[in-house]
Amino acid sequence: MTHDLFGQETSLKDPEMLDLWNAVQIGVLSHSAEAPVHLGKLLEAAPEFTLGQAAKGLFLLLLGRREMRTPARDALAAARIAYASALPRERLFADALELWLAGRPTAAVEKLEQVLRSHPADSLAMKMSQAIRFVLGDSAGMRRSVERVMPAYAPDHPGRGYLLGCHAFALEETGDYSKAETAGRQALWMAPDDAWGLHAVAHVHDMTGNAKAGLDWLTGREEAWSHCNNFRYHVWWHKALMHLDLGQTDTVLDLYDREIRQDKTDDYRDISNATSLLMRLELEGIAVGNRWEELSDLCAARTEDGSLIFADLHYLLALAGRGRPDETTRMVQRIHADAAAAGGDEARQRMADPGRAAASGLEAFGEGDFALAFDHLAQARGSMQLAGGSHAQRDVFERMTIDAGIRAGRLSEVSRMLDSRRAQRGGAEDNYALARRALISEARNQPDSRSLPAE
């Protein structure tokens, strides 16, 4: 009987293949750029490995791109070849892939939870459950899942540090900021390459409005994310947000050019980093030059994607109000069409809610119709969690809603939103919120000034 580094029985018998599989799993947990390299070598030598093929398919779907569905289906077909002789735990991963391909990611998560009920120390299943729940915006589910399996992780379990990193992120996303910071710091102490745990602590500082402490946390710990795949750009994005909150916009633009858009990819995660940061800068009245142009060109080619509403809304940020009216209209119409044909497809259900209202709001914002933008964005606001991503990532839409409301003179409604935003952040406010409260106070003292000056 052969076991992997987490003590899980595996159908792999060759020691070299097992070493590769262990490297894949550690790579996934640490967001290493080498993980797909190891997986490619493994599947070339052992194409019948059901769990490896299923994992490949799940990884491809996490990329959130329509064109990845074909290779993901190919991976499922390969996983089915030796399905009957695979271990029950391995087959459940293949079942999860099949369900997600059928448009049912929530059911796919349940298959992974079935793995964890029988094998709670399976770190790959733990990580994949959190990853899919993250896409679904299920922060409470992330926390429940991690906390259920924590008793199975002895202090010497090789996945314990990564488990704590996942717990830290789930704690932060459910508003338990003090515990999240403690767990994230412990995670990095146990697993120095746990970029996820490190970034969970960065989230805590974002949500509690403490940019200075966030910069102190990240500075000098670059080795914790330098090994990463494009997740390293996201950590640099967090650092840029902290500099932005401190008004250090020259540093923000330097990080954008030198790190965040170091590679001009159209990966939706890289696009979301870039578009949301540029929008935040513009909301502060900072000129960003021609940086929107390359993003708009890339996003114009993604108008028909429809894999994730989170991705689509960030594509729209690069199109609406950027001289791309045809692409903007086409994308908004496609989101509405997907919503109308949602059926049991969860991605399309999210096109319906919050997608339709949010997309129409972004279109109106780009056209300078701030009253209409506020109406639509405010309608989407209550269900934006369903778009997936983190509080920090979705905050760009919150800021646009607030700014549209101020420009439209909807000051009382915006004040209530700021109060709600503060409550979500444990009573803390960042400099963005403080500046908007000052604008509202100024506008109320000047009744004829019903909107912000044009930029």
Can you describe what's shown?
The protein has 24 helices and two strands. The chain is globular, with a radius of gyration of 22 Å. With 455 residues, it is an all-alpha fold. Mean pLDDT is 96; it is low at 449-455. Helix 12 runs antiparallel to helix 14 (231-245) and helix 21 runs antiparallel to helix 22. The chain has helices at 15-30, 35-45, 50-62, 69-81, 88-101, 105-118, 123-136, 139-149, 160-173, 177-190, 195-207, 211-218, 223-226, 231-245, 249-260, 268-283, 291-300, 309-319, 325-340, 346-366, 370-381, 391-407, 411-424, 431-445; strands at 2-3, 9-10. Strand 1 (2-3) and strand 2 (9-10) form a beta hairpin. It starts with a strand and ends in a 10-residue tail after the last helix.
The overall pLDDT average reads: 96
Q: What's the N-to-C terminus distance? A: 67 Å
Structural class: mainly alpha
Helical coverage, percent range: 55-70%
Report the order of strands and helices: EEHHHHHHHHHHHHHHHHHHHHHHHH
Q: Please state roughly what percent of the residues sit in beta strands, choosing from under 5%, 5-15%, 15-25%, 25-35%, 35-45% or over 45%.
A: under 5%
SS elements, strand count: 2
Task: Report strand order across the widest sheet.
Answer: 1-2
| Overall geometric form | globular
Q: Using only CA atoms, what is the Rg?
A: 22 Å
Which regions are unreliable across 5 or more consecutive residues at pLDDT < 50?
449-455
- Count of alpha and pi helical runs: 24
Main pleated sheet: 2 strands, antiparallel
